[in-house]
Structure formats: C-alpha cells, structure tokens
Amino acid sequence: MKLEGDIVTPQGVIQGHLHIAQGRIAAIAGVPVDSSRAGEGGRPVLLPGFIDVHVHGGGGRDTMEGGDAIEDIARRHVRHGTTGLLATTMTAPVGDIEAALRALGPVCRERSAQSARVLGVHLEGPYISPGRLGAQPAYAIPATLAEVLRLSEIAPIKVLTIAPEMAGHLALIGPLRDAGIRVQIGHSNGSYEDGVAALNAGASGFTHLFNAMTGLHHREPGMVGAALAHGEHAELIPDLLHVHPGAIRTALRCIPHLFCVTDSTAAAGMPDGEYRLGEHKVQKCLGGVRLADGTLAGSALTMDQALRNLVQQLGLPLPDAVRRVSTIAADYLGLWDRGRLAEGAWADVVVMDAGLALQRVFVEGEEIDVVADA
C-alpha cells in the first residue's frame, strides 16, 4: 500500500510517498518541504497516529464499566486519530478496580479490528490525596507495593498516579519504577518540596498538569512549581478549558517533554447530555464535562481536536504539535516503533487536510472506517 502527500517525519516534512507492508512502514521517499506549507495545493498531510495515555471513556462508555466497554471506547477514539491509548481507571473500591482490570487484560493483549491499540492501563487512583480528589470519588487510600503489583498482573499498569505526600508513598516510587511502572504525581496536596523529593525518588512526570494539585505562588511554589522548575515530562489537557492558553505556553517553555492527553470521558464523541464517569454522573454542555456542582470532570476532547488547538489556537508549528500528541508519549512509554513515521515503525498513520480535518486513519496498516463517526 502506498500513501502520498506531505509526510511529517521526525526529520521534518517530506513531500512524497509512504509505503506500508505487513502492518509496518517499509519505506518513505520524497523531497523536504517547509512545514508551514504542508497540505498546500490540496495535498494530504500524513501524521503519526496519536498516543493518548489518559482515556477514561468515549462513545458513551466508561472504562470502569468493564465488559466490552473498552472495545467501544477504543473504536470511538480511533476515529479521531488515536491509534494507541492507555485505558484509565477511576478511584473506586479496590474490588471495583479489579473487575475493570479483568476486562482490560485481554484487550491489552490483542487488538480488535477497527480499534485503537490498548497499550496498557493508567491507574489514576485510588492512591491519591483525599484533599485533591477533583472529580474522583471519595475512595482514596494509601498504596502498598504488593497491591499495585497484584493489580498489574491482572492488566499491565504502565502509568500510576499517586500523591507523593501520603504516608509511605515516597518509598514506593523506586520499586514501582524498577517494576516498569511510570509513577506520575497528581491529585496531590503536596508542597514543592514533596514534588522535588518524588522526582528525586524516580517519579516520571505529572498527571494533568495544573489540575488537582497545589498551585504556583511566589512564596509557596507548590506542586505546579516543582513541575515547572524540575519536570522533564508532564501531561496536559489542551481543551482550553482545563488550562488557560497562557499557562500552556508557560509549561511549554519550562517542561521539555510536555505531552497532551484528553482525560476523555464517556462524553467524548457524543452529543450534550448526561454520562457516567466511574460512579459519578456528569453532564456534557458547551464543550465541557462537569459534575453537578460545576467541577470539571474529565473532558470531551479528542486528540484530533487537541492537535488543532495546539496549531490553530496556540500557534505551535505542526511538527512540534505532532510531537506533543504522538511522539513524546510513545517515547515516554518506551515504544520506539510508534508515534512516528519512520521506516520499521508500525503503520499507525493519520491523514488530514491542510486545515487539519481528519480524512483517513490506519492502525498497524489496517484502514479504519472513520465515516461512521463523522
């Protein structure tokens, strides 16, 4: 199979063609062009498939439902260009988390047709601060290494969000890192000093930067200050509701490997109305998702819109925006054959027009029916 157009590669934009064989990129050929001219003359723009490490739901389904919910979620997000994702849990009784993980395990091992690849699990709770729940239900508890490892045997935990200031958590970061779990700081009432200590202990990054953590003050820098001063990686939700564009620009200048997530709920890809988020009922209205008291509760964002926001609202050059929605997250997860258009990588490809409207999606060489979710 051959795809022609302006190809966004790690080395720059190439006008030419991309050849797919046996689910991987066999060759890329063409001539370099200025990235600002990508898509001129009606040429398609070829991008690496998006990688989203924070997905609670989509298409009216929620990860915590168990059953076939994750397959519906993965089929909905792939129609918006997300070719790989981490299924993300909510804070809940441990038994409920186990039930959700039992449904996730088989899907992590084998991708269904017309679906994004479920790359593993992001466990966003219950090991968070009771004082910084955000929209998480009130089931926060301290973590133990044995419990986390037991849960990861049910379905592979790739990212774990914790509040490092909770008793015993700092000592867990190193062993969890050694077990291959990336520990992110989030839903935390911790101080700047707590954040620095967690990073020194081996924490990898920050969960939805700015949201559900202590903010920046010039005499109390808080967890946000620790991220901006010392962080190498952090998630950020670029729906322009969770974080002001000025704060996004600040983070882009401070954190070298800032990457985008949706924190999407069941409301993603759906009309306004009531949806489930864990045990909560949430309302989608005017582009946002909120609890009854007005608290933001995840998002309705999809990754194609995240890319458009970065380029069209924040002014990022297309290659840099692509890194933020694809390459950095893939590298963060240690997936050197995803999140980039390069020879030997999986043929996870998003085709857009010059206005970044999505036209076609391929996952591991399989073309996805995107018309059904137009």
UniProtKB/TrEMBL annotation:
Q: What is its EC number?
A: 3.5.1.25
Going by the UniProt record, its keywords in alphabetical order are:
Carbohydrate metabolism, Hydrolase, Metal-binding
Record-linked Gene3D superfamilies:
Metal-dependent hydrolases (3.20.20.140), Urease, subunit C, domain 1 (2.30.40.10)
Ribonucleoprotein keyword on record: no
Instruction: Please name one Pfam family that this protein belongs to.
Output: Amidohydro_1
GO terms for molecular function, please?
A: N-acetylglucosamine-6-phosphate deacetylase activity
Please list the residue ranges annotated as the Amidohydrolase-related domain. 45-360
Protein family (similarity comment):
Belongs to the metallo-dependent hydrolases superfamily. NagA family.
- Write the protein's name: N-acetylglucosamine-6-phosphate deacetylase
- Source organism per UniProt: Pelomonas margarita
